[in-house]
Amino acid sequence: MMAEGAAHTALHHALRGPRPIRTRLVLTVAGFGALAVATCVLAPLVGSSSINLRRALDSSIPFAANVDAQILFIARLPRVLAGALVGAALASSGVVFQALLRNPLATPFTLGVSAGASLGAMLVIILGGTIAVGPWSPVPLASLAGAGLAAAIVYALANGPRRVMSTTVLLLAGVTLNAFFSALIVFVQYLADFASVYRATRWLMGDLDVGGFAPILAALPLVAVAALIFMRLPAALNLMGVDPDSASSRGVDVVRAQRWAFFSASLATSAAVALAGPIGFIGIVVPHLVRLLVGVDHRIVLPASALFGASFLVLCDLLARTLLAPVEIPVGVVTAIIGGPFFLWLLVRDA
Amino acid sequence: MASSSSTYLVAHEVSYAYPRRGRSGTAHAVDGVSLAVPRGSFTGLLGPNGCGKTTLLKLMAGVLRPESGTVTLEGRVLADMPRRTAARHLAVVPQDTHPAFDYTSLEIVLMGRHPHLRPTQLEGPGDLAIAYESLEATGTLHLATRPFTSLSGGERQRVVIASALAQQPDILLLDEPTASLDLGYQLEVASLLRRLSRDRNVTMVMATHDLNLAASMCDALALLRGGRLLRHGPTSEVLTTGTVRELYDVEADVHFHQAAGHLTVTPVRRVG
Fold first, then answer.
1. For A252-264, what is each residue's pLDDT tens digit?
2. Interface confidence (ipTM) of the complex
3. Which of A25, A83, A109, B28 lies 20 to 30 Å (CA to CA) from residue B38?
4. pTM for this one?
């Protein structure tokens, strides 16, 4: 606790104290919202090549001749928006999975959704595939299908005979499925040639350079549906985080709440992984940082994590683009380098 | 009393078996139990480990749905009531509470307001006042901003009772509320429950292993063994050397303690 630092603790008290929930919610959303907006506005302006903003926004220059505008709108803006969407989706589904599993160390990938998504993507990258549906190109589509398959398997296993979802079975099924899909991924890669293995490995590192607005617009409705469901969950998540039985006796339909939580968090995670690959640690680092700042009430933690997740991933990607420019670091490596030690610190601190 | 007991919280021939995957044949945890709890009474559920006390308590709270039989609250079938409606009448105090997150005591108590709020509605000043009042009633007001996990066992149990009180229930169902507490805290929680029962006319149903606690608090006892109801009646009639032997296979000395003002049970030896 002492290591949190004085300024940190002051903010903690200012936001968490005995203020009414409404005030805390408004302050928190305003603060993290402002940070997210500032990050998304400023991040596209920074990069390995500097751009002239006035020239980029000058509509008298034809777009085809305006290099600054091209860098801003084609190279950087989609990447920043993809980062914001993926960061928000992974961080908020992390919060929901942690409450559903009653385990603060759970991540959006704990239940095998990302492993299923990865297997789907691997198969298309290595074996090839041409099925595209609407705005979805083959690799994201296969990734989405793999994620859906994994979620369906875990769900079927964890749903007991009397329809009570066992969090223990969820966890064990997820861990097993992760290992199983990872083995299949290794096997598929073993059979493939070097070029496709390189592409597949690159996909596994995560990449926000999604190549335009279309993939973002394809993922957006899925994340939006999940977000709408998330908005109705926090009170139930709070109570299930205390104790599932007492949640029931306080008026929560626990089985129903668990199902919505599982479905929505799996949906948001699947969409994020389909868009940008399995970018790790966002779903655990962000919720924990947010809890340190604003307390553990899910009605505040959930929106705050979504907003901070957006900022966090955009900033990580900014580092990935600029740190070793002109060489790019895969964004999944940056989040892991920041997240890994943080995760270990959490384990030591909680122990 | 007779008319209210037949219309208040009543279990009618309820049975429940826990689902067991991959095994056919289920042993009933609760098997055809009928029990009427009169308004304002303090009923104790007694019986050996695994006799179905906790399951019966969960059935009567509506947390579990009976496989056969019904539980009714003022004549309405509990299983047909929305969870939120039922929770405005019935609150449960579990034996232990282990939150997965570091909630403050006040946050835990405010969650008791859940059945009175719409799903996305935030609690207002009225709810906060009820929460503070509940903390005060359980002597835990000074713990409001403390993290729940940093509290002692007795403090925790009192905060959980405060959370149940914030629900403003008519009936409190308690599952061994003093089992994990030392003697001092046991007496503290017991006197709190007695006060709530007397001053607020909250109907209490308490599962317990502590025969002396039951003797001192309960005006009626229900004895369970193997999921079945052995006996139900006034404490003074039900708690005897014979029933203790029947229930626990233990020979005990049961007599009225003048200083304590209630029956006391002293176990002597295991029999049978």
1. 999 899 999 999 9
2. 0.88
3. B28
4. 0.90
